[in-house]
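worker-3 :: picked D-serine dehydratase-like domain-containing protein
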Amino acid sequence: MRNLALLLSTLPPFPFHPSLLPTPFLTVSRSALTRNLEGMQSILSKHPKVRLRPHVKTHKCVEISKLTLTVGGAQGLCFQVMDELEPHIDRITEFDDANKSPHNNKLDFMLTSSVIGKNKLNRLKTLVNNSSYTTLISVLVDDINNLKQLIDLSVPLGVFIEIDVGQNRCGVNVDDIQGLKTVELLAKTIQDPTNKLEFRGIHAYQGALQHVRLESERSSLVQAQSVATAEKVKNYLLQSSNITSPLITGAGTGSFLHELSGGVHNEVQPGSYIFMDTDYLANSNPPPFEHSLWILGTVLSNATGRACCDIGSKAVDLVSGVPKFTQGMTSKYFENMEYESGGDEHGVLSPTKEGAEILNVGDLVHAVPCHIDPTVNLHSEIAVINDAGDVEDIWEVHRSCGR
Ligand code: PLP
Ligand code: MN
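worker-3 :: tokens ->
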């Protein structure tokens, strides 16, 4: 919080014009953000049995979490790392207005990761104790020894069994009967009444398919991988041991419409829909969300005839592709301008055609990233822009290298 206080001490009182922000700076349009929250609810209103558990990894911001749980229709939250969960538990009393009905009148927070290593196991125990038991924290497991470590913490925890649904990273491989028996053993161990764990269900998330461009191909791969595999495991547990899986959870922005039509998942975990990025909008028939987050930059020079701005690789993630620039806080891209990295702190905007927009020194530019989550993670704050175009608030981002 010290950094935010220091930053605020250099700024005028709210509201003020964004040109007074130091750039590069993340800016979110409150109205576009609200439309994305509403858009998600409108889609899910047609699937009343499916819960929404948005992923905090996209925004890493307590204020946005509160919005998703109060006006965004969310019934719980996903976190990827402890560094995201801890600030939320720190400020848990601020979640009073949140939707607490979903699970035994508790907030329903889930880490979409196994908790491995002494440091993280100790922190998990502290988090459960500090949440004053008003929150059920759930974690993933795919390994029996790790499950025993969770039991040994001797605090109430929810547990999901993670299965591999085709991404080949974590999760029990259930291609053969041995894998199914591993899932069965994990489920029975979680359900053993001598421990404090609660079996929450199956985690079936396939991230790679979200970027398959063609909708028909994306849809059939999702059915064949995440949906079919989750269904197989759910049925096996029921038939072999009469174990019901309360939740079948997974699915992000690029694919959740297909998991919804698969009818097996009863919870979805989209994160990027809140801000969107150019990669998801490049899919054929993308879900109906709009850009709500821009990196505000400043033109530093046009001495070479190409505008050089202050958005370099420390302000925008370039791994998946380069950012696009828009005409203000809109989704209308400048078509005649191309971004090229100018290094850590510089980005060069070249006109691709005659008649391209001329950018002068000191002009503000608006960039939308190709991949939103790692871009947000490069920043410590987000400025909230109101309908008049002014900064009305600044929210802290809990960036992390993934701990
Ligand atoms: N769930 C899990 C387990 C994830 O890893 C991610 C993103 O990587 C998401 C949900 C959210 O996906 P998206 O940001 O694409 O909506
Ligand atoms: Mn992502």
